[in-house]
Amino acid sequence: xxxxxxxxxxxxxxxxxxxxxxxxxxxxxxxxxxxxxxxxxxxxxxxxxxxxxxxxxxxxxxxxxxxxxxxxxxxxxxxxxxxxxxxxxxxxxxxxxxxxxxxxxxxxxxxxxxxxxxxxxxxxxxxxxxxxxxxxxxxxxxxxxxxxxxxxxxxxxxxxxxxxxxxxxxxxxxxxxxxxxxxxxxxxxxxxxxxxxxxxxxxxxxxxxxxxxxxxxxxxxxxxxxxxxxxxxxxxxxxxxxxxxxxxxxxxxxxxxxxxxxxxxxxxxxxxxxxxxxxxxxxxxxxxxxxxxxxxxxxxxxxxxxxxxxxxxxxxxxxxxxxxxxxxxxxxxxxxxxxxxxxxxxxxxxxxxxxxxxxxxxxxxxxxxxxxxxxxxxxxxxxxxxxxxxxxxxxxxxxxxxxxxxxxxxxxxxxxxxxxxxxxxxxxxxxxxxxxxxxxxxxxxxxxxxxxxxxxxxxxxxxxx
Length: 465
Fold this sequence. Notes:
The chain is α+β, with helices and mostly antiparallel strands. Helix content is 35%, strand content 20%. The protein is built from 14 helices and 18 strands. It has helices spanning 3-6, 16-21, 30-39, 66-75, 81-84, 135-150, 191-204, 240-260, 303-323, 327-334, 384-398, 404-410, 428-443, 450-462, and strands spanning 44-50, 56-61, 77-80, 96-101, 107-108, 116-124, 153-166, 208-218, 227-235, 238-239, 264-266, 282-288, 291-292, 296-297, 300-301, 345-347, 354-356, 373-375. The strands form three sheets. Strands 7, 8, 9, 10, 11, 12, 13, 16, 17 and 18 form a ten-stranded mixed β-sheet that branches. Strands 1, 2, 3, 4, 5 and 6 form a six-stranded mixed β-sheet that branches. It has a two-stranded antiparallel ribbon with strand order 14-15. Strand 1 (44-50) and strand 2 form a beta hairpin. The relative contact order is 0.11. The mean pLDDT is 91.
């Protein structure tokens, strides 16, 4: 279907701004955004960004005139770096940083009562250079390093799993637990919220693969308990920096909708002991130019797949510092549900640390989407920017593992159980030890500041699982 035909369908392209501007987001300029702001009758501008705690932050403006609007969109604004990135080495005596808007990230806030144009921002130091303590900066540096040293781009998609909680009104929804996979209304109560989220994400410009209800269901055990059911929104593949942003925006949309609809929402690794937990699985795909690299070539792993998988296997425990950050993270992994507990990889194996999902093909046997490698260890407590930066760094390191073939052979759980699989860390202290051993991998190329790794290790040693 060509663009001439598509132009007759007002719902496509999915992104509202792309429809209004009639050009791809990569070509949006400040002038384009000024045009949209004025013609759409918007009133505010919101500069949104990821803070040191990986939660979205916002700085709001009401432009006084067109010149003021242009200055905001073009230059951003200063902020207090010591408050946004506490314990990161940014002192109160010289704490100014700059929020740098990215026009290509703009969207119209679906929740703002008075109409707000939102732009995602990076962080700059006083001299204009990228702020090294920022997760956004760390991820972009890791992404560029992998391109330069390995010769390919790494793309990712996150599976955003979450639980919705409501009062136990419909007793027929409480009879059993963990039974909601792909269920539809009226057998689940969160379908309307999930579908509203899908439409909002599309309007914002976040590419989505699909959404569905998940297996997790925790009935009320007392009259005062909530009923919890699990859902998932799986995003589409994007370059690592955009993939991390999309996870945070998706969680932001879901939280806002839950509040609007009078429900509780939880991204906790485990919402109630004994029931399915919420993972934050990431699928990874390598691209050389516009072509994706297959994972399997003639029954053997492609070279890029070997590097990605090898890095995840060798350094997966250290990556838990960025992907498994709550006490419930360990409960999710070790309570006997579909979660990895040992260092293994395998085709289709949902208990493996790294899984190779089946690739959908058309009637001619041609793939209809890129092959992916699924990292099943992270959960809903993950810091997506730091986690994906860490994965880029371990992929670079995977190219230099001296016994890579042996590692892949002895951890292959595709056809049988690996009896002597090395265990993953079982508490924060063990994660801290893994980070300390792997710190050279994270700090390589100046990607993760040494001071940040020091603080992560310190935090992990103080935290109690």
